[in-house]
Design a protein that fits this description.
The protein has one helix and nine strands. It is mostly beta strands and 146 residues long. It folds into two domains: 50 residues, SH3 type barrels (Roll), CATH 2.30.30.140; 66 residues, no CATH class. The strands form two sheets. The protein has a five-stranded mixed sheet with strand order 5-6-7-8-9, covered by helices on one side. The radius of gyration is 28 Å and the shape is rod-shaped.
Length: 146
Amino acid sequence: MADVLTELPPVAKSVHTFCKKCDIDRYHKVLAHTNETTAKIECEVCHSKKTFKLPKAKKLTSTGKPRAARAPSASQRKSNHQSEYNSLVDSLAAMEEKPYSLKAKFEIANKINHPKFGIGVVRSVQPDKIEVVFSDEVKLLIHNRQ
Ligand SMILES: [Zn+2]
């Protein structure tokens, strides 16, 4: 289970990892932590000393592989959203906003004024729901309620 470690094993405990000298996985005693992600360890069989490194430290960004490849960071998502919102609102600058109400019926690209969320633009429409892009987030709102 050594490869799912997310933090260093405590000093004086053992960690199962590869020993070059023995040429096999061995238990190694942890002698000391050198920093947050590396520790001095000693093979319990041949007593050779080496440095143990955590495979993937979540907080560490300096050691190679950036984790951002798949999911954009929260701030990136936010700025993507902001630019989508801004361009939507810009493109509808001339349109008058409709006050939001449960009973009103909205259509795609309607500009609405919501008492809580402010100005939003309808992005998609279902018979009883609308998806509205507001400045902070996209909301699913009820409309066309009889
Ligand atoms: Zn060894």
